[in-house]
Amino acid sequence: MAFDDVKKVRLGVADPVGFNDFACVADAGALPAENAPPQTAYSVRSLKVYKAYDETAGEWQTVPTELSDERIQFFVDAYGADKARWHCLKAILVSVGRKLGLAKLKSGADEMTFLKLQDLYAFYKNLLDDIMEAIDPPMAAGAWLRTGQPDIGGGM
Asked: How far apart are CA 86 and CA 139, in angstroms?
């Protein structure tokens, strides 16, 4: 798997939100012991998770992502890096949309988790709308046609 392709797509779709760089390490022992750069998440290949250093807690914490590196790589292989962004955003919207419904069922629409998920959903929806014009969606087809009124049953 080419991590550079995954990194490019992850940065393009902001998954996870709030990070501006990603690095790859073989296992948790290879994470930097000191001076971990801020806003950098590390893909730990042996664990198949992303970790980031939390300075306030003084420890490495798992960073939640909506898509696995393998799924992103599948989109890159199937559609190329640019169109993979479109497919990733659609998949992220589905994932966040499912969580939105569950949070609403659990405790109602006024709950903070639900509101945060709504914001996250809106963020990804707006991002998808922004790149729709730049990248042709692979399944988009159709046209507006003007047709005459058909005569049915003798017409008028």
From this structure: 11
In a domain, 4, yes or no: no
CA nearest to 88, candidates 8, 10, 1, 3? 10
Spell out the residues 6+ positions from residue 12 whose beta carbon is closer than 8 angstroms to its own.
85, 88
Burial environment of residue 45 by CB neighbours within 10 A (0 to 12, 13 to 18, 19 or more)? middle
- What residues make up the domain containing 106? 69-132
Instruction: Calculate the alpha carbon distances from 139 to 13, 65, 74, 94 in Å.
Output: 20, 26, 17, 17
Q: List Cβ neighbours of 40 (8 Å cut-off, separation of 6 or more).
A: 19, 20, 21, 22, 23, 52
In-domain check, residue 139: no
> Is it the case that residue 86 has pLDDT exceeding 70?
yes
36 and 79 together in one domain: no
Q: What is the pLDDT of residues 88-121, one digit of tens each?
A: 999 988 888 777 766 666 665 556 677 778 888 8
